[in-house]
Amino acid sequence: MKPGIRILSLYDCQLCLTAYFRPEMRVLLPMIITLLTGLALAAPAPPRDLSVNEGRINPIGFHDATPSFSWKLDDPRQGAKQSAYQILVTHTGSEHPETLWDSGKVVSDQSVYVPYSGPALTSRQRIAWRVRYWDQESAESDWSTWSHLELGLLENSDWKGSWIHLPKDDFKAPEELGSPVVHLRKSFSIEQVPEMARLYLTAKGIVDFRINGQLVTPDAFVPGWTDYTQKIETLTYDVGPLLRKGENVLAARISDGWYAGTISKRFYGSMPELLAQLELKSPEGKVLELIATDQSWSYSIDGPITMADIWHGEDYDARKELTGWDLPDYPSADRFKPVSTTPIDPKVRLSPKRFQSTRVIESIKPVTLRKFGEGKVIFDLGQNMVGWIHLQLPARKGQTVTIRMAEMLNDDGTLYRGNYRTARSLANYIPAKDGIADYTQTFTFFGFRYVEISGFDQTAEPSLDWVSGEVLHTDFARTGSFDSSHEKLNKLQSNIVWSQRGNFLDIPTDCPQRNERYGWTGDAQVFTPVSLFNYDTHAFLMSYLESIKQEMKPDGGVPNIIPSNQYRGWVNSAGWGDAAFVIPWELYLRTGDIEVLREFYPMMKKRVGYYTNKAKDGIVDEPKSFGDWLQPKSYGTKPVGTDDRSGETSTRLLTTCYYAYGAKLCAQAAEALGKSDEAAKYKALVDEIKTAASNKFFDNDGRVIEGTATQSAYVLPLAFGLIDGELADKATGHLSEKIEEFGNLLNTGFIGTSVLIPTLEKHGLREQALNILFTSDYPSWFYSIVQGATSIWERWNSYTKKDGFGDDSMNSFNHYAYGAVGGFFYEKLAGLAPSANAPGYSEILVAPILDDRVPLDHAEASLITRYGVASNKWEKSNSAWQMETIIPPNTTGRLTLPFKPEEIHVLKGSADFKASGDGSTASVPAGSYHFKITR
Question: Going from the N-terminus, what domains does the chain have, and what CATH number goes with each?
């Protein structure tokens, strides 16, 4: 049989052959068909997990009219690979689907980010697509199931309504804490329920939307936080099932949120506004009727949420509930007044949200409770988390139930709230009647572990089921996992994940609890690699990069906070503004999405150009940088940078390191984009900077000669390739001495710590790297775990059992920057890393540290890549190492082990190890492998 010919099912074969057999012979048909099936070449399984662009699955309200397509091969065979594919795209808005684009058979192994090449797509357009492929033996798969995509409103001109808001005459300057939530409604009638209906929705502020009393979506904090002066995100929802024949009601509640709340000091505007558009459509997608926000809507500010603010929390008075306000037949004239309108500003782009919204991901129950005098009870949820507090407890009519929270407790068991600073961060609930109070917040969120409740019915005995914590974060998929034989290392990984969850809420924030919660660029750039392992943050980071690009200054300057709101003049700290070139490269390296570079390479160049314009003989300084922020111990010299928290590492050295690193990344990006001339230019620039820096910052013996010779003063030049060869070897020795000087402990801040452990490992200081990682002494990752950490802390000693709490002014217990060390777990200890030669795990580097000095008996990492699951795990015994590796279909693996080829026994799969350096390497195709290494 020729390759590529598919076998019919047994049922189909029986139908075909029955006509050729006499009735008395038909009993033999199953046997004959089974025999034929065994002899024939079976077709590979259809592709699965179809997605578009940055991993989005069947999106509604999509942002990109030029999508790309990805799929996975469902083939466990060794060497499973695609040799060709065919994509079929149809327009679904007609009774008979129209083919928009048929790629035909394309001889290619590309199965990720294949660009759509059909006719231009437009707003609202719905398409379906499917794919089939030919495997390494040219056998053809069946077609995949259909996947779908529906575009949102891509142009401002698609919006037919106006922004609606309170009239100026009824608007009062917000209270210091926050404003009441505004209720908005619109009643309309339809003769019949349409076949299809879409709600297009956005707000300046935060909105939850209802139709006929039912929530449109579980999404929280819609639409999200961007620079409202340039772009506002929009969302699309399928609301057909919520409509009814006759009268219908569109109803929304809006709060200040990030737009007009205290978090931005009302920089963007003074009050929230709503823009919405309901379209009733035919099955073909034709708009039959359109209801938009306009002067026919009405409002009320007399509802139950009397105050809502991101920093300060929420107050809910159930006695003021507008019962039935979101349902038909509500007498709105008594309480609702006409809104005011503002036209859509053509200079502010209304753009469909390109990543997932925030949602409640899980619910956590308390593990203990403790009663205090004066009618208070404190619940311990056992985990520092971010989200809402759901109450179900007995309460008295008119008696305020107060919900206070904290990340930590004082020694007497009361809440420690000093680190919240000026954020009120609490909620009040006033019941309308005696009985069970059931309340969850809507327009705020909290960072906490402990919840204090007061004001409940004192005749009731407190119970653990009174409280639960609803965990909120952007709804991206979990992709990576790590496990080992070391309890504290596993706890550290858990803490890293929890801090990512708490701080990846629509933007990557620095902390989720105090009067800050901003998108600090430095924290985001050091943590990006780890974030992409733990979760699929591809689309999330693309959106953040878009915001950086929008707010970049004409000269390449970058605000330290994105969105910058009232801080847009606060720019250019080295290591912070450099997120503009670090994040795009790390995102491309770990996703393989060349569109990342196509979209953001100009921004990378512009940032490096900023440094070039400031450079003097190859050296750059940003004296007002944050430096190596929060260096834990002093060397006894004068701090540099913004203040005494900026450490003692020379800002000229630190900035020049990032200048060289940016030029290096631009060279790599240019090569990936096929811009060889530009790549050569940036490589030459790197060489110029290295020569200048070697002469300026180091003597011939490799000692730092400018500023204080801190650990970071050696680590950063080594990590970023500012020095190499013999000079780097000498500097490595001095770095080792600096570590010994501090008792073989780290003394690095946010910037230095992010690259410390892998740099020590790379430059031959493995033992010191392991000692620093696995110690429980101060300062270290395990030190905070010993003190009770369930998340990553801002400071190594934010709290100690001996000395209590650190400085309240900067003492977050949920701050992910130091979690950047997680990359060493996954890529080095477990040995699962991407390759710059074939980004996005198209080639997987498997090179675990199999060394008896590693205090582990086993380690394993698993990652859902765009191609499928990749994993590596190892276990050691007295006589051997065992290693199991999975390389997903349509990828290859590059295995590097510190053993001689004859010591490596292949128990499963096929791998040919060759001697290389101090060990052996093997290039392997997709498949499952099992190795045993004799000791």
Answer: 10-39 (no CATH), 48-151 (2.60.40.10), 156-353 (2.60.120.260), 359-474 (2.60.120.260), 480-826 (1.50.10.10), 831-934 (2.60.420.10)
